[in-house]
Amino acid sequence: MSNARYDCIILGGGAAGLFAASMLVKLTKGNSKILVIDGNDRCGKKLAMTGSGRCNLSNKEASAGKYHTDCPELLDACLKAFGSDDAIDFFENELGIVTVCDNGLYYPSTYRAQTVIDSFRFFLDESGVDMRLGSRCVKIAGDNGAYELTLKDGSVFSSANLIVASGGSTYPSTGSDGTGMTLLKGLVDPKDIVGFKPALTSLTSRMQGIKALAGIRCKGSVMLSDGSANLDSSEGEIIFSKEGGISGICVMDISGKAVRLLDKGGKPVVYVDLIGRTVEQTVEMLELRRRKFGSRQIASALSGMMPRVLCEFVCRLSGIDPSDSMGQLSDKDISLFASNICAMKIPIDGYGGNDKAQVASGGVKLSAMNSDMQYRRRKGLYIIGEALNVDGRCGGYNLQWAWSSAAAAAKGVAENV
Ligand SMILES: Cc1cc2nc3c(=O)[nH]c(=O)nc-3n(C[C@H](O)[C@H](O)[C@H](O)COP(=O)(O)OP(=O)(O)OC[C@H]3O[C@@H](n4cnc5c(N)ncnc54)[C@H](O)[C@@H]3O)c2cc1C
What we know:
Layout: E1 3-11, H1 15-27, E2 34-38, E3 58-59, E4 67-69, H2 72-81, H3 84-93, E5 99-102, E6 105-108, H4 113-126, E7 130-133, E8 137-143, E9 146-151, E10 156-164, H5 179-183, E11 193-199, E12 203-204, E13 217-225, E14 230-241, E15 245-247, H6 249-263, E16 269-273, H7 279-292, H8 298-301, H9 308-317, H10 331-342, E17 344-347, E18 350-351, E19 359-364, E20 381-383, E21 390-392, H11 397-414
Helix pairs in contact: 1-4, 1-11, 7-10
The chain binds flavin-adenine dinucleotide.
The site of flavin-adenine dinucleotide has 40 residues, from helix 1, strand 2, helix 5 and helix 11.
């Protein structure tokens, strides 16, 4: 079969791979021979799903604190070297994408992920970048500065520089099924790999009666604990799921650490603030309703504060009979009820798996990389995007990581060709 030689092969035509190819074209002024390989018949299958098809490209607040990684220092340096302003500048001025910023979150002005994919596609086509689609890579061989990739259809391609942009392990139907890590096995020291786990996912609980809350939404905050220490927290909309448990953006933000704790045999607990007020303020709100609506049943007295089913759930957690009248509540009842709304303790027993999680935590350790995302032990081997052990919160941070890491690798490769 063919053995074509390239200056750079990029394995993975997702967000990071497409950006790396485009940036490399720019940095080498179109004078490098680049090949992008993707197992799908079209590029950017996962990118098409981002932001519910609207593609939340980046976030003004992108900084190391918004991510989990083993090497915050290198992450910080990479985001400072090429941050959200640089990414937006590239989209606007190189790819021709008009962007908008909604409360710090960037989108294409069309609010269509397809706009971004098409712009990459047109740019790369016109720049003479070769695309090999529809056949998965099954083997990577070689070493320092000479890599050979074999595809399922038997074709072989070689290059001095290889950028692995094979993504994580979630939504495997998009082609990002974690096999990129298997291909890297002979090249990357196993000590430098953290196994993939779902992150940005929902959390489930077998807490008695929790399924009855399915569909309830409230604005508040969540705090993850291992039973003794606060591990992570976030705020926003909380949604009770039909599986029994919680989801919503703030829950997804803390889920990565909950997943790892559960899988290590720990017992994660989430404290949910369902009302976004302090306990004192909540006590005052309850006392006011006791004074004004004392003769009503508790759920009716509190109907302006929370849905009946949630009120009844909190009553039971607090040892209060929901059929009592509001006026029957003692100060102690009110204080306990308030604590349970402001910090409802939900023991976590499970999580949404790879088919539900938006990103994977894990991948090749960032601490094993140079600042240009070149693996320290192999000259010419670059790893970027979700294939690295970096996962961000919801809000455009994961795509920004794809752009920032891709820009770093493109710069590194451009210095080599
Ligand atoms: C539903 C959903 C919504 C999301 N929304 C957002 C959002 O709005 N904002 C945000 O910042 N992030 C979002 N994300 C996360 C974001 O999509 C990812 O972090 C990002 O796509 C990672 O880019 P990547 O290039 O590293 O990997 P991917 O985009 O996953 O690309 C990897 C590519 O490698 C290819 N590949 C893998 N192995 C092989 C192989 N052996 N041979 C050939 N090809 C291979 C795959 O086919 C795939 O195309 C979302 C994710 C999901 C699932």
